[in-house]
C-alpha cells in the first residue's frame, strides 16, 4: 500500500471555475479503490514545499491571481526535490495553468497553459480519441464525457500524446507521460468537474496511471 496525497486547490490556489473539493474527492476515491492510503491536503504551499512521506502527489489546483515570489520559489524547489528523489506526480487539468509550479515553462510537466494562446471550447460533451499506444489507454479507442478540452497548449516537442481531441481542424493532446529528474509524471488535462470522473473510461485511465506511477 502506498501513500497518495491529493493536493487540492484552496486559498490562492482556488479559483471561481473549478470545484476542487469535488474533483479532489473523486481522484482520492479512485486511488482508495486501488487499495492505497489517501490524504487530501488543501494546504498547497506547505505540502508542495515539503511533500513529506507522499509516495505519489496528485496535483489538482489552480493558478493564483497574484504571485508570491518567495512562496512560489519554495514550491518549485519542493516539487523539484520530490521529483529528484524519484517520486512521481499525477498533474490534473488546471494544475498546468499554475505559474508557481511551471514558471510559465514546459517544465516540469512537459507543457503548460500559455496565456493568450491556450484556450478551451465551451464546456460540454467532449469526444476524446486515443493517440499513441500505451498501457494507460489500452483497449480504449475513443470515449465521450462532459469536460473542458484544453487546446493550443504549449508542449515540449518530445511530448507524445496518449489521448487527444480535435478542435479547429487540429489535434490537441489531453494525456501524456513525462519525466523530470528521476521522477515520472502523468499529465491529464481532463477533469474540470466531478462529471468528468463519472466516465468509466476516464476513471480506468486514471487508475492505470496511478498504478503505473507507483510501480517499482
From TrEMBL:
Residues 3-210 form the ThuA-like domain. Pfam families: ThuA. This is ThuA-like domain-containing protein. It comes from Amnibacterium kyonggiense. The lineage of its organism: Bacteria, Bacillati, Actinomycetota, Actinomycetes, Micrococcales.
